[in-house]
Design goal:
Number of strands: 5
Number of helices: 4
Oligomer: single chain
Strand order of the largest sheet: 1-4-5
Shape: globular
Radius of gyration: 15 Å
């Protein structure tokens, strides 16, 4: 089995949901222009747009297959982590990203998700890990 151990992925449902503001985060602003999503955190300037190919699992599967790669380990797009928002909101944002990443790769067994942790406060990541009561597996 050939595994690509470093890639980024942004689930399309995540982008759709944040663009329609179904879930509100006071320190997170989203701008959609020219088909791209740009995120701004804590009153700062918007980050780079999320590259379109980062949210296309079918194109990714074709790309991997053409190169003989069986699986790809995917983390989120770094410009989405929001490390400059307040710690409690950052923990909620991190859980929100992780939930979308997990549900976003579930239909695609060739994608193996990584989680993000809130790094706004030294004590925050351990508290988030303790909340996870069930191991997660994406193995077929």
């Amino acid at each position: 089995m050939i595994i690509d151990a470093h890639a980024h992925y942004v689930p399309p449902a995540f982008l759709d949901e944040v663009a329609t503001r179904k879930r509100s985060f006071p320190s997170v602003k989203v701008a959609v222009a020219d088909g791209g999503h740009r995120f701004a955190f804590a009153g700062n300037d918007p980050k780079r747009p999320v590259p379109g190919g980062m949210s296309d699992p079918d194109a990714r599967k074709r790309w991997l297959a053409a190169r003989g790669i069986d699986r790809q380990v995917v983390g989120g797009w770094l410009d989405l982590f929001g490390y400059d928002i307040p710690a409690d909101e950052g923990a909620d944002w991190s859980r929100y990203l992780n939930a979308h990443m997990l549900s976003g790769v579930r239909p695609y067994p060739f994608l193996v998700p990584l989680a993000t942790v809130p790094l706004q406060s030294a004590g925050m990541p351990p508290r988030c890990w303790r909340k996870r009561s069930t191991p997660v597996s994406t193995a077929p």
